[in-house]
């Protein structure tokens, strides 16, 4: 068997998403958030979104024979709530290669905070570009793509024909970059015009010509279930693109 269909779901809204958006709006330098990134849970809205994702999953469960999830709490909580009692029979694999992009010294800083506390990183980003800029102690988009190539190679050679990944917006974007495939400029242009919404579903299918994007960031299941649609960017950059 070979992987020929891939569903990509972003986690529901987290308390970190809410705190980051509020900090940007209020002009703060630092996002007021106590848990480390890996431990940030869903917000109440995020739990509602995960439940709505569960209604989508109930209609597609027979189409999916493999589940993978980021180790971060917000992603695991999303999949657990979406699966519900069905999760007792689902073989879920937690894989650290699906974790969110690590921001290093820029973690918990707003754009204003980066400009004020680390202006040298603002200059480095402007020189290197968003794709290759690696904050000290963190990762560039290219670094995340490298670990995702390893992950996708393993999944492609595994037993699943149709897989669901629950992870983060940067992961969704970079899976598209790898599989479609895209170049650096194509990815950045696509990311500038497209947002991976919380608890959205993106679908890739493989044909003889290669992988194709069938659905991007679909949230009809949220609207049907009355859950809020939220667009918090989960992979902030040191300046707007």
Please explain how this structure is put together.
The protein has 241 residues and is an alpha/beta fold. It has a single domain (5-225), classed as Phosphoglycerate mutase-like (Rossmann fold, 3-Layer(aba) Sandwich), CATH 3.40.50.1240. Helix content is 41%, strand content 15%. β5 and β6 (210-218) form a beta hairpin. The longest helix has 17 residues, at 44-60.
List the helices and strands and how they pair.
Blueprint: E1 5-10, H1 15-26, H2 44-60, E2 66-69, H3 73-83, E3 92-94, H4 111-117, H5 119-128, H6 141-156, E4 162-167, H7 169-179, H8 184-193, E5 201-207, E6 210-218, H9 220-225
Parallel strand pairs: 1-4, 2-3, 2-4
Antiparallel strand pairs: 1-5, 5-6
Work out the number of β strands.
Answer: 6
In which order are the strands of the major sheet placed?
3-2-4-1-5-6
Strand content: 5-15%
Helical run tally: 9
Write down the overall mean pLDDT. 94
What do we call the CATH topology? Answer: Rossmann fold
Query: Cα distance, first to last residue?
Result: 41 Å
CATH superfamily: Phosphoglycerate mutase-like
Number of domains: 1
Gross morphology is: globular
The helix-and-strand class reads: alpha/beta
Low-confidence stretches: none
- Work out the radius of gyration: 17 Å
Q: Given this structure, which CATH class is correct?
A: Alpha Beta
What CATH architecture do you see?
3-Layer(aba) Sandwich
Kindly state the percentage of residues in helix: 40-55%
């Amino acid at each position: 068997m070979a992987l020929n269909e891939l569903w990509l779901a972003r986690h529901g809204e987290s308390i970190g998403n809410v705190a980051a958006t509020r900090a940007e709006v209020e002009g703060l330098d630092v996002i007021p958030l106590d848990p480390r990134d890996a431990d940030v849970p869903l917000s109440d809205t995020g739990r509602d979104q995960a439940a709505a994702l569960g209604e989508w999953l109930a209609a597609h469960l027979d189409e999916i024979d493999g589940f993978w999830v980021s180790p971060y709490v917000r992603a695991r909580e999303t999949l657990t709530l979406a699966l519900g009692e069905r999760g007792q029979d689902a073989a879920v694999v937690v894989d650290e290669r699906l974790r969110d992009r690590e921001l290093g010294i820029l973690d918990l800083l707003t754009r204003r905070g980066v400009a004020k506390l680390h202006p040298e990183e603002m200059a480095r980003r402007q020189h290197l570009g968003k794709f290759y800029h690696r904050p000290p102690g963190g990762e560039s988009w290219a670094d995340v793509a490298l670990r995702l190539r390893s992950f996708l190679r393993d999944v492609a050679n595994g037993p699943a024909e149709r897989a669901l990944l629950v992870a983060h917006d940067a992961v969704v974007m970079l899976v598209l970059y790898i599989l479609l495939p895209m170049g650096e400029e194509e990815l950045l242009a696509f990311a500038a015009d497209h947002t991976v919404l919380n608890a959205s579903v993106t679908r890739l299918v493989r044909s003889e010509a290669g992988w194709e994007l069938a659905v991007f960031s679909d949230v009809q299941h949220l609207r049907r279930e009355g859950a809020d649609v939220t667009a918090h960017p989960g992979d902030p950059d040191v300046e707007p693109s």
